[in-house]
Orotidine 5'-phosphate decarboxylase
Amino acid sequence: MGRAPFGARLVDAVAARGSLCVGIDPHPGLLDQWGLPRDASGLERFALTCVEAFAGDISVLKPQSAFFEAYGSRGVAVLERVIAETQAAGALVLLDVKRGDIGSTMAAYAQAYLSDSSPLAADAVTVSPYLGFGSLDPAIEEAARTGRGLFVLARTSNPEGGTVQRATVDGVTVAQSIVDQAAARNAGAAPLGSVGLVVGATVGRTDLDFSALNGPLLAPGLGAQGAGPADLAAVFGAALPAVLPASSRDVLRHGPDVAALRSAALRVRDELAAAAR
Ligand SMILES: O=C(O)c1cc(=O)[nH]c(=O)n1[C@@H]1O[C@H](COP(=O)(O)O)[C@@H](O)[C@H]1O
């Protein structure tokens, strides 16, 4: 039997382990801070320490692919291990690759990250809809076929994102049109669809309407980019139960000690749970 749909698996993971998503972003400066060399062996120690610290307790880990690709094929081999060992320890892997391309090439990205035969297949990936939402269809279809998911960039956490994403076309903002198209793909799914969105925890109050989305909302920007648990209610309102807040550097700075990393992550997770009550 195939795996259950991503949306259902995510609901179970969050119920069991809380809503925090911890990012694995091996910045060169963090390797320095952890006393590790800036090479593939340092990357490997960093990333596998993160897996040891988080994968047994946290619902979703989000490795940022660029930091692994920077070390070439050895870095990508480390990423493959991170994916496999995280899943073996019971956490979901959201691979942050932010891919987007014409449909025929998107089908190749879907094979790389969402097919059962790829060693880089994660539980979900981040994708960019800025070649047109429909260009993502091959990835949406492969994800549905294999029980995996997508997180589509809608309103990103960076200050530059707003100029494109708040622009209005036919009376609707670009970001809202992405929300609406994701909602159409999730219609009828229970308990939650597998086409998620990315909306930064930093964006403050917007007029985005998530009421029909029926999908998860990844909210990066906690900690290092300035957002805190208390900011989420203003951004998401009634959609808060579907939000997966994400933090990377603000947790990772507590390494390299495994126990210190784990307790930093659990502290943020508990703060999020308290803020949501
Ligand atoms: O898709 C993402 O994860 C993402 C989207 C977004 O709008 N903003 C954003 O910061 N991210 C990613 O989330 C992580 C944030 O890292 P910290 O700022 O260290 O917590 C990085 O890996 C970013 O690439």
Observations:
- The chain has a mean pLDDT of 97.
